[in-house]
């Protein structure tokens, strides 16, 4: 098989595929002959192979080791640079928060519009690379920090959390704009808990009296449930504090009893259901009479869904001295109007999105399927936001000739939009085995 002077001769059956791998570590080869029919005979001259390097490794292995080493050196350099950058930013932010609210240039168009409306208001948050600060760098209760670290596993603040926390803590009204999925819930919950701790430490408000200090209004049951869950998690180690939820689609009486028996400091609600409770129970109105903070979560959606009148009614019944926080992904005209009516004239607009940016966080995956007519799906489940939109969709679908099953029994257990596996849709067998099934939820 092997000839002298580095010449290797191979005689192989034609049926066997030949590749250069056949010649193992020989890195440069030269074909020096070819064969006749049936069998093929050829030779290769190993021009530059077989050499070894320190550690008795081949040249290829040596090269790969060197490349790996270079990659590691580069990675370490980048890490050092990032740490130095983070430290610099931390120092800058600490310095600016000592001298008041950081006011940064390069405002978004929303900010510029707001500035026209409210020349006295401060605009913060834009143009700053953030997401660099640790929770424990802020004056946050150690019990909240413990829940953040141990239960939620969060160490650093997100951009919107960094930007809003010091401003909210100062007691200012805030309109905050941040992309969907950027951590707005914790952004308003953390300073809310601090506000409760501050209020309960003062002499006029004792535990158990006029207990609701923070009211969070969400457009629908699902974000309300999420906010209440996160509030409960953050309050895990605050043994004397609790959060409760009142939302549509649940038993009114059970909720009312719960509110009476277990007074809470954080109340999460949808507008309609809260107004129902307030009109039927003086106790609920009493509980809200010393409210310190009102949060309108997803304010843009609240208004888009037609809750303006409900919100006006609600705000009128709450104490005038409360702090108001508006959190949203977009700031349309309606949000400007509400901020104009409800927020103090000197409030802070914090925009972490900027001009022309997508309103959804890049990590929130979105997709769609275009299905050709002759390949249409037989089962379609359409999820809508409200009962009214659901009825409209059902009507349209019927007009399109779909069989819309009205009698389908569908229940959700613990709807959680972030955990698809937690969704449960129960449908009747007859519906399941039918054809052209269309269901609007
Ligand atoms: N500091 C943080 N570090 C890591 N993850 C976080 C942090 N803050 C929040 N999160 C997580 O990020 C996800 C999105 O947060 P959240 O739902 O509050 O965003 P959002 O801006 O309110 O979005 P949406 O508009 O959909 O309600 C949640 O799973 C939340 O637990």
Automatic annotation (TrEMBL):
Asked if the keyword Cell inner membrane belongs to this entry, the reply reads no
The answer to whether the entry has keyword ATP-binding is: yes
Domain named DEAD-box RNA helicase Q: residues? 133-162
Task: Quote the function comment for this protein.
Answer: RNA helicase.
- Catalytic reaction(s) noted: ATP + H2O = ADP + phosphate + H(+)
- Helicase ATP-binding domain sequence ranges: 165-349
The species this protein belongs to is: Riccia fluitans
Say which family it is in.
Answer: Belongs to the DEAD box helicase family.
Q: Name one GO molecular function term.
A: hydrolase activity
User: Where does the motif Q motif lie?
Assistant: 133-162
The first-level EC class reads hydrolase
Tell me the domain comment.
The Q motif is unique to and characteristic of the DEAD box family of RNA helicases and controls ATP binding and hydrolysis.
- Descriptive protein name: ATP-dependent RNA helicase
Tell me the domain of life.
Eukaryota
Coiled coil ranges (UniProt) are 68-95
What's its EC?
A: 3.6.4.13
Keywords (alphabetical) are: ATP-binding, Coiled coil, Helicase, Hydrolase, Nucleotide-binding, RNA-binding
